[in-house]
Amino acid sequence: MADTPAIRAGADGGTFRAVPPDTAVPSELGAPGNQNLAPGPTTVLGSGGPASRKPLSPGRLAWRRFRRHKAAMVSAVVLILLSIFVMFPGLLTDWGPNEGTGVRLEGPSSDHWFGTDTISRDMLSRVLHGGQISLQVGLAVAIVAAVIGTVVGVVAGYYGGVLDNLLMRVTDLFLALPLLIALIIMGRLPQRQAWAETLIGPIGSVRSIVTILSLFFWMGMARIVRGVVLSLKEKEYVEAARALGASDLRIMARHLVPNCAGAIVVTVTLNVAAAIITESTLSFLGFGVQSATTPTWGNMLNGVEGYTRTAPHLVWFPGLAIIITVLCVNFLGDGLRDALDPKQRKEA
Amino acid sequence: MARITITEGKPERPHLTGAASAVLDVRDLHVSFRTEEGVVQAVRGVDLEVYEQEILGIVGESGSGKSVTMLAVMSLLPKTAKVTGSALFRGEELLGLKPRQARAYRGSKIAMIFQDPLTALNPVHRVGVQIAEAITAHDPKRRREEVQRRVVELLDLVGIPQPDLRARQYPHEFSGGMRQRAMIAMAIANDPDVLIADEPTTALDVTIQAQILEVLKTVQEATRTAIVLITHDLGVIARLATRVQVMYAGRTAEIAGTEELFARPRHPYTSGLLRSLPKLDRTGDERLVPIPGSPPSMLAPPPGCAFHTRCPYAQELCHQEVPPLRPIEFEQLAACHFADDLDLRVESSE
User: Fold this and answer.
1) Does the predicted interface ipTM exceed a cut of 0.90?
2) How many CA atoms lie within 13 A of B9 on its CB side?
3) pLDDT in tens, B224-252
4) Does pTM top 0.80 for this prediction?
5) Number of CB pairs < 8 Å for A and B?
């Protein structure tokens, strides 16, 4: 090489500064043209300062943007607190969820913060224990659905053609099924078919609810991922990877899926909220998790319609739990969308 | 097509001595795409030889088939493309390879650099990881430290300062020129025998273009790879290429050594390209001469010589007969009926 690397570095940035070879070349060097890329450093320099030598990974940049989203930050804190109390109900109450307290239909008091229910169980304990199931179901369904949806979406988007058509028509088919009816019928299958019980677990079990819900929650993910992949696969880095001899599997796993991560994470959070709601609906209708043994926010609402005037706390607390959780999860998803995909931001 | 007899050899063109053979030998390549408007004949019978360690420039307008030719060699064309002919890499046929076999060639024997370095690196992975991946894709058993050493070595070779630090950075922390250097590092990671550079400098600004060309030269000297430089910029050709193949409307118009081509083009299209090139030493009132008209539609290419619609010297014969690519001068071939008679020198003073 004719000239020294240090001079070249300066010239590359278009600045022609004399950069001594031992100083760190800060990220500002990448100024021209960087706006084309999602995690451009230009948006960050103001808050972060150019002096940081640690590599600014896309994740780090996203975290910086997420921190600025107030509603999402508050929601995250609320959800973390909620999860802690739900995971350790003993922190707030000594009563068990199926334990009789001796007092029926008592309103909120210092002994029973959320009151007691029709057969004298402590409502706070039941809301907290019910939260375990609701959150579990929400997360599990969203994650299982994400895996199915991502695989379907990436394969359909990447290969295109007949395979794409086939997978997308199957997706349409699933979307065309009336959700509640399909869920209810599937939930009852183990009653008659032994194979259904081994496959999805006994009626009313958490496992069966998660399995059945997952089967009907992957379609949105598949469509979104397919859409993102359709645009990603035209990027030159995919072509470059192919030119380097990367296999299809490698291109999908290493290049396409990580670049879909933003869309996937956002969809997962939104699916968590939707799954919690759907589980509650099913349980409310009596087709979900069995209320006798396992409380969930949904099945706690089952059968209390008659008490809305005499003992409204029976409706209020499980209802509030659902609303707050779903609201927070949705805000979180919103914040993640802004953080992971800054191009989609509506406000400046 | 008759091969030209070799009478004397120049040291910088090893193939002329007969010692070096064609590492890549494309014969009668046809590529067509079926579209809604009809069949686009992108490449219509191209012969192309790439010799060991040479830098071959391929020049032509967009749509002349230069990129498609190389993508066909790389088996990177979409499935809708119909490819016929032959492309031999060291005697082995590349066309019609099974995907798995084609993958083994790509990146290890024949590598490619793309036009836009801004999008050619994956934004979510560190640059070093991406280069390492190019190595492990072909050699999964290489030890990690060894791969890491090689990555730093490669970044150093392409002139990236502090290569160990830079390897840990993300593409968005690299400038355009730096990214193109990283792309070059990635392409040469497996010591390919042929490096295809598809418009490697088009997306960069002028000061950096020169640097990237310098890097390519350095890389060529260090790795002894042959480089196929696809460009529409004759300035780039003049700086780097030892030999030039000019393409027009899916066919070869002219093949010549770079000096010979610039000194005396033998095809009217080549001279048209040269005339439209700005020169600093020209006097002020001299105007650039554009080639009139626009490139023909490849849906229905004109009969005879495809350039006859724009050629100032076109005769009746040009409308009817396709001129064969034939040797005109020592190591200079042109596809023009009147190549022997026309004096197309751009500067007669020399």
Assistant:
1) no
2) 10
3) 999 999 998 888 899 899 999 999 999 99
4) no
5) 151
